[in-house]
Amino acid sequence: MKFVRIVILIGLASLALGPLAHRGKCQIQKASAARTKAVLLGTGTPVPDPDRSGPSTAIVVDDRAYLIDFGPGVVRRAEAAALRGVTAARPGNLTVAFVTHLHSDHTAGYSDLIFTGWTSGRTAPLEVYGPSGLQSMSEHILQAYRVDIETRTNPNGPMRDAGRFPDAWKVNAHEIKAGVVYKDDKITVTAFATKHAMESYGYRFDTPDRRIVISGDTNPVDEIVKACDGCDVLIHEAQSVELLPKLPASIQSFVAKYHTTTEQLAELARKAKPKLLVIYHAISFPPGIALPDSYRPALPRMRCTRRQEFFRTRSARDIRENS
After folding, report:
1. Which of 26, 126, 163, 273 is deepest in the core (most CB within 10 A)?
2. If you average pLDDT over residues 192-196, what whole number do you get?
3. What value does the mean pLDDT take over residues 57-67?
4. What is the domain partition of the chain in residue ranges?
5. What is the pLDDT of residue 15?
6. pLDDT given at position 238
7. pTM, 2 dp
8. Which CATH number fits domain 5-322: 3.40.50.410, 3.10.20.90, 3.40.640.10, 3.60.15.10?
């Protein structure tokens, strides 16, 4: 049966999608002749792990980058990618973004994306696409930074120099529904409904040489299978069936309703048949992380090291061996 390659990513990584090969290390890979790259800027969760920024992915086609989600650290990780050769991800170049849902771990970097992108050279307003509530969130962020905007754009402000673009702090927020939500000469972006604790969407990116699907946070849904259907890359969240029983009951219940376990992802991948499966947004608790008080009763059993692989479960092996 068809072999599915799996990558589990916890840090900044780039998948240069030429011949799809297994990339087990969390580091930037050398670009191939392919026009499309998927750059994992952040793969973390609400857990404040200093080694993992909040969820954010860039789909790079030629010299243009399209951002999905903007969790904590997104701008710094984008600059790190630029310094490693992905110049399209430079903060000033990020002009189009999509958000899967409005949970804080996926949006806490929004103001940084708006204003650091502006002061780093963005020349036009930021175009952002996402679920209901995005317009209000955008307006309130801009209002919160009103003093910053005014002091940078007044007659004595640094953004009034020749060659600057003083109106590029603006945001055009587009609240979407399922279907094609964006198209240009490089890419077509299709949103599909997912199942999370609020209105949420996954996205399919069709480029001249690749089809990439990103789940966002979701319980397993048929829409992901339909969107992928043998896609080149499926980037999907997963929560370890090994770790889940050690979490508080309220977390277990939330995961059961609104997230995907490794066992469920194994079944979904058998149906979707991606050429490359990338697992992200997985909960782990490496040494040194300060946990919420509600986690502390399970603390001795939950600590892990970076070398422990929570995803080495029967179901994960089934994906590799039986798909």
Report:
1. 126
2. 98
3. 98
4. 5-322
5. 66
6. 95
7. 0.83
8. 3.60.15.10
